[in-house]
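Teaching assistant here, posting this on the class forum so everyone can see the example we discussed in section. The complex has four components, and the goal was to see what a joint structure prediction looks like when all of them are supplied at once.
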Amino acid sequence: MPLERAVAENLKDGDTVAFEGFTHLIPTAAAHEAIRQGFKDLTLVRMTPDLIYDQMIGMGMAKKLVFSYAGNPGVGLLRRLRDAVENGYPRPLEIEEHSHAAMANAYEASAAGLPCAIFRGYRGAGLAEVNPNIRSVACPFTGETLAAVPALRPDVAFIHAQKANRRGDVLVEGIIGIQKEVVLAAKRAVVTVEEVVDDFAGLHPNLTVLPSWTVTAIAVVPGGSHPSYAHGYYDRDNAAYLEWDRIAADRETFRAWMQENVLEKGADAFAARVAHLRKAA
Amino acid sequence: MPLERAVAENLKDGDTVAFEGFTHLIPTAAAHEAIRQGFKDLTLVRMTPDLIYDQMIGMGMAKKLVFSYAGNPGVGLLRRLRDAVENGYPRPLEIEEHSHAAMANAYEASAAGLPCAIFRGYRGAGLAEVNPNIRSVACPFTGETLAAVPALRPDVAFIHAQKANRRGDVLVEGIIGIQKEVVLAAKRAVVTVEEVVDDFAGLHPNLTVLPSWTVTAIAVVPGGSHPSYAHGYYDRDNAAYLEWDRIAADRETFRAWMQENVLEKGADAFAARVAHLRKAA
Amino acid sequence: MSAFTANEMMTIAASRALKGSDVCFVGIGAPSAACNVARLTHAPGITLIYESGTIGTAPDVLPLSIGDGELCETAVTTVSVPEMFRYWLQGGRITIGFLGAAQIDRFGNINTTVIGDYARPKTRLPGGGGAPEIATSAQQIFITMAQSKRAMVDRIDFFTSFGHGEGGDHRKRLGIDTAGPTLLVTDLAVWKPDPATKEFTVVSLHPGVTREQVQETCGWPVRFAATVEETLAPTALELQTLRDLKARTEAAHKAGASAGKRGSKDG
Amino acid sequence: MSAFTANEMMTIAASRALKGSDVCFVGIGAPSAACNVARLTHAPGITLIYESGTIGTAPDVLPLSIGDGELCETAVTTVSVPEMFRYWLQGGRITIGFLGAAQIDRFGNINTTVIGDYARPKTRLPGGGGAPEIATSAQQIFITMAQSKRAMVDRIDFFTSFGHGEGGDHRKRLGIDTAGPTLLVTDLAVWKPDPATKEFTVVSLHPGVTREQVQETCGWPVRFAATVEETLAPTALELQTLRDLKARTEAAHKAGASAGKRGSKDG
């Protein structure tokens, strides 16, 4: 299905939405489509909000951010996010902050149908004092106090993956991150893929495959995770991450860049962006 | 290292030990070596005790069994285990009985370093009334009552796997069951493998590999999971499972069979047992 | 159509209750045969899951165990056992849990644990395995078993897995929000729970079976629906599919010699 | 030996603290460089783990992010992020957690969350990521950072991750049974916690560094060990290894053009 329709049919104003990807397979094309469609009042969930959430926050689409590490990976801070948190520009942003362990466990618990996750965490950590969604339970055998966080159940999850087959099963490989858990945790799941193949015959039986009936919609967008990368397809565009630091530093520069590179473009622009990052044959 | 030494150095009388394998990759050779070395007062842990625990219980080595399904898979009951539970022969057997979900979660929790596992289980189930290790916790967010079981931390785990490399990393593939969790859950882990290869170069990055530093000892025993199977090496010996029902039905027949096939044999007997089960080239 | 056995009728009647959109958690034995007949006839899209971790499997022969190699070789993906019980069963992904039973009562409560007292059993059965959580996490439970007074009893000796408890809204009172047993297919009849009491009620008799035969092989006073239909006899396709499946299975499982023969296909 | 920078000295001094038997949870930046220099010099057996799920990785160039493709391509295995935090970190498999810091206090407590008040921050930093649990689940914590009064402060603004708290047995009082920060390597000195108070104490000054320089770039009154040694200058091998690594890294990361060049090796 075209990405435009997949996004329109599955995302609504006010939704809690996760565009997940752990440095690898970040669903940039889907995020840009959501920006073009101009959704409002979103609660954005992600372990590692990076460029795409900086962009959505900078465009004023987010009322709340649930996260565990908000940086431009390997570069520094996220300047649109800072502007929203520090100055309330373009609108104030409520934040719910966790550790990676908490977020990973919370997605996992939701995929497992549980209302909460327990883990050994947050001991001595300041977040436990500022986030009311960090609570505790006592182990009924040892009495040990364990941290508890609510399961993360987004209304909709977006991920990028390498391949789908004609039946609609999805393959994720390489750094698989949290891709499987977020799809199983969410009420609806939209996947962009690099390509569609006839079938997955010959694949090793233990790979990370999401059966077709766990996925709501699939859109083919080659290059759709640029400037992140897709293992086996193209490399990370490190220069784009460095460049983002400059673009996001200034409100006007940011606006102009978004206008030119997101609002006036479509999903078909991504293939060209990764052309120079593909492996030599 | 020779299996004899790997077992002698890692198993002691009175240990809590798990010989795990979920229909696939059952560590029969290791269990037979333990029988030959005549350990006593073991607490045997396994989701699916089958022939090898029937054998160890029939030989009087076990004082307790922790399990979730005690059958001869696809055939019926375990007759030596029944004799121990129903008649105390050759010695009484204490049992701690769980569901599969509970055992799987308990191994998982132990691999994850937690003191207990919580899950949505045992609702309306009789086991919750007869097993004091089934307790509950309330979700601190929803108030829902969830089942809790203590983490399973065996003194030693034995598994069978397909391959090790020269560095000592271990590959498990196909039906991976609980192999990884039990190794990470146990204090010591002994692995028998079909073969050793130079390295794992070219393997897909997301396969189930246990790094060398998670494994205490490795012994090469081709055919070591007969009459179970090793995916990619040989098929399940269904006839042996059917035949076991006859052997185990009678105390004397059992004793004679053990004498001939276990006590008077060594690990090197396994290769021949699977010769007719190997795939045609 | 040629004659058929009661067992064949049972398997085929059970298979008809499955839809192509179902995600089915399959027990070994009669459930496995019914699920695979459904897959090979009217429900090719059905997803079969075995608790060994194999998701979307399509075996050519019936497995002897829930972890046979062919289940993995033909699956969409094979996951670990903890993941199976956490993401797939507890995660609410299973539409139909298909169970057998050593003992069952009129409310679909199942015992596969012990005959007699738990601490001092007359017969120690294998135990629950996955059933306690299948019974409460799968959206619906189908049960299939041959009738006998030993198996269909007034009171089961142990609650291995919870059906409708004492009937009525007992599940809801325990906070269980899945439907529980919604179908029982025996070698004689098709049963469904009464909407209010949740007692299993005969809704259809297999061809040639009388009400008396059903009562004679059941340990509680059998209730029949207002209208009891006759189960449609197996079609030629259904019967042929089941018999071919059983014949392939028998050939494959006969002695260890199966390996060589299957090698050329699997290798 | 040729001259070396303070930053090079810092990385190399940190690398020396790692052993071949260590299983090291690696943060990006200086920790990553130190870990890889150790691997390429005296500790080839070391296991490097990045929180993206890559276990036993051996990158030829330093990754810009913790999830670069080469980490996966050279790893023994790559697991999911939940598994990484559950089995590998929380499971107690990590001997050394290697962290950087925006702010640190004398007890090794770290802040990477906010400068100023949490609710109304002057500067919103990236946050903790994996650090809160690395700090308590890894058997020991090594920290490496450049000294400055802005970074080494009397009181940190936020307890992102717990070091020795108020010092002494504070960890034990919270039920934390791991050792916590046992080493701090800056661009000027090597610090270790006092056995009793747990306050970081200078045990070794890098060549040419004075006590005054250490104090001038530190926001608390610095304690020096009874005997303060001089850090061994980088060996030729160490320096060459680090510089080669940095040169390879720079070449690889320069513009997107790296892909074509690396293709022949990776493909």
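For the discussion questions: Chains D and C do not touch (no CB pair under 8 Å). The first helix of chain D runs from residue 6 to 16. Think about how each of these relates to the inputs above.
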